[in-house]
Each structure stands twice: as C-alpha cells, then as structure tokens.
Amino acid sequence: MKKRNKKILFLASFEDASILRKFTILFLITSIIPMSLLYYFYYQNTHFGHISIPTSNYTYAMILMGLGVFMGFITIRALLVKIIDISKQNSKVLENLLSPETIQELNKQENEIVILSRSFSAVTQRLEENVRSLEVAKRTLHAIMFKVGQGISNMENIDTFLDLILETLTTALNGKTGTLLLLNDAGTELIVNSVYGTAHYPKKELRLKLFPGSPLARVISEKRPMNVSGVFLQNYDNQALKELFTENLLCAPLVCHERAGGMMIISRPDTDSKSFSEEDLSLVFNLASQTAVAIENSKLNHDIEKTYFETISALAMAVDAKDKYSRGHLDRVTSHAVAIGESLGLDEEDIGTLRDAARLHDVGKIGIPDEILRKDASLTDEEWVIMRRHPEIGESIIKPVRSLQHLCDLVRHHHEKLDGSGYPDRLKAEEISPLVRILTVADMYDALTTERSYRPKKSPSEAIAILRGFKNQLDQDIVNILAENLQAAEELI
Hints:
CATH class of the largest domain: Mainly Alpha
Order of helices and strands: HHHHHHEEEHEHEEHHHHHHHHHH
C-alpha cells in the first residue's frame, strides 16, 4: 500500500513538474536505452567474442551516438527555454490584466503548460466580463442619450437640465445622492436647488450656512474640487440635510467668470469608504463648470425675456393710456381674471399665465389707427373690420418671443364666443380653452362697466345681468364666479 502511495505521489509530482524538468528526465530515459544496447554489444564482443564487430567501430558508434544525444539535448533544451521565456513574458503581461490574487494562484504552479492553460482560461474569463461590462455600458449610454435628448427638448426649463446632469453624474460615479446648491447673493449660504437619489428630500428650501474655514467654504473660496468628509454636518441640526450627504463626498464648485456661484456634491453610499479618485474630481469639476455657464446663460436669458415682456407690456399700457375711455382697462381685467382663476383653484403657473395675458391682450391695438381707437361715435362696419384685427396683431407681436409664446392663445382668442360668433377664428365650445374663457368674461365685464362715448357705463349688477344673457356665448360658470367675487367685494347690490 505504501509503495502504491509513493508511486501515486511520484506520478503527481512528475505531472506538475516544469517542462524543462520533464524533458530532462524523459531525455535521459530515452537516451539510456540505445546507449545500453550499444554497450551490451560492445561488452559481448570484447569479452566473449560472440559478435564479430571491430572494437574501434563500437567506439566510434558510441562516440557518435553520444554526440548525437548531447546535440539533441542541447538544441531541444534551448527550444524549451525559449518557450519558457515566452511564458514568463506572457506572465508579466498578464499582471496588468489579471488580479493579484489570480497571478499569485498561477505562480504556485511549476508546470508551464498548466500555467499557460489557466492563464488563457483567466484571460478568457476576463474578456467575457469585459464584454458583459461593455453591454452594460452600452445600455447605460443609450439611457443617458435618451435622457439628454429629453433634457435638450426641455432646455426652456433649466431645472430639468440640472436634474439630468445630477442623475447622469451620480449614476456614472456609483454615487448615492447628487445635490446642486447655489450661493446666495451675500455669499454666506448655499441653497439646495436640485437633488437626485433620495425620496426623502422635502420640497422646501434647504440652506447650508458657510462657516469660515469649513470644507464647503474652502471649496468656494479656492474654486477647486475636493474630497470632503460629511463630519461638517454635525454643525447643522437638520435631518433633511443629513439625508442628502454621507461621510464621503465629492464637492466641485460651479465656477463661471472666475466666480464660484454654487456647488455640486456627489455622495458615496455609506457602505463605500473609498474616496473619489483624481479622475472623478476632474470629471465633476469640468462638468460643474459647464453647468455654471448654463445657469448663467439661463439667468441672462431670463433677464432678456423679462425685458421683452416689460417692453411689450409698456406698449400695451401706452395703447391703454391713449384712449381716455379705456384707461386702466388692463389693470382691471388683470384683477378680475386673476380673482376668477384663484376662485377656480388654478395652480400658480396658470394664474401667472392669466395675469400676463390680461396685461398684454390688447397690445395689438397699437396697430389700429388712432382715429378708430379714439372715435367718439360708434364704429362703422369697415372700421369694425380693422378693429377686429387687433388680436391677430397682438399675437404677431408676442409670438417671436419664446417666453411669451404660451400667451399667444389667450391674446389671439380673447374675443371668441362659445357659439362660434367671435373672432378672428370663429372657435366653438371646446375649441376655446378655459383660460381664454376666463379672460373673455373679465374683458367683457370691464368693457360694460366702463363709460364709452356712445353709451354710459353699466353698474356691476347690470353688467352681470348682460353677461348672463349671453348663455350661448359665454361660460356661465365663470360668469357666476365673477358675480360671487363681486358680491364678496360688495360691488354688487
């Protein structure tokens, strides 16, 4: 049994031996056989004379065989050494491809064939992992491109674009949350503007005070990205802030025109204690700088569009002031329209649209001749044709301004009627939007309660009665809400 075990151990040891060792053993074994046979003939001839071969011939044969064996040994061994050298060179190359644990496991083997076989297996496995990673990266890239496309199509809303940037960065860096904060005008606080990665973010304003010498204050003052510990959160008694930030943060300032206007923060998961790399810092800083430019451009565009609105609004007020009978009409219509919208429970966006449209709804009258606008008598049919062009003129004035395009429907259609008798497009019923219906009622009510050259003004109760008489032309629900508002304001007797 012991002999069998020894035999098994010997065979296992021989199987795991290096190529060079195997070759040496096998070469010696194969060389001994012909040499032994030749020696046997030589011995028989010299001692017993059984074989009649000259002794010198044996000597030459043995010398030539020995030389042949030796040359074969040298040449084949040299070839095997080259193969081993190639194997070692490949092992060095593999060190850059495989993990240290895998390399250490391979180095335990002495057999180069086994090493090469396992190396190829490890490389194949690594390639398969890379292929899978490339597939994941491809899907991720497609998802990002889809989101970027959505962001570009919604560039009117800078917040949508900022949300996209945060989501893309946080996902790419395997972060937990991403937060974008803007510096207040005094430079003393950071205000949370956009958040990605947490469902616990309260929809209210969160502020971080910049304590002198704190990590966040250094990021702003030095205008460079940093790895920051979340220990600074101990200075804030706000659980909502602690939900946004972990112990491991990447902070990059939003730098534009040599000024830091805010900060972008990416948080690592609590289970990941590894700091962000220099490449991560550089990537986020570059993207933060581009984001800062986008925010600055958005502010400039907002200021320009605000100037456009104020300019066009000034034109509308100028038209309003030219007619002594309608002076103050825009302000009153705005007041009534906003009150109706609030009574209906409209959101802030629709209320703002109503307010702006009411201020601009008659801006097209700037294209109507003064002799028609200021005429003391009733207009002729020809003059009414010209007057009825003012909604279209008004739309053409505001339409080129992108930020005012949402007002075009109200400005163009505020004289439409539910029965199709209005102008300029003779819309009917559901073709007229709710906001247009509100503006139409508010406009008609103020026109009735304003004195004209050709008629005296109506009282609030008389005007409401007239509006209720237009059952097929005006939305009576809106008329009733207007009456309720006037009653509450004690304007109706």
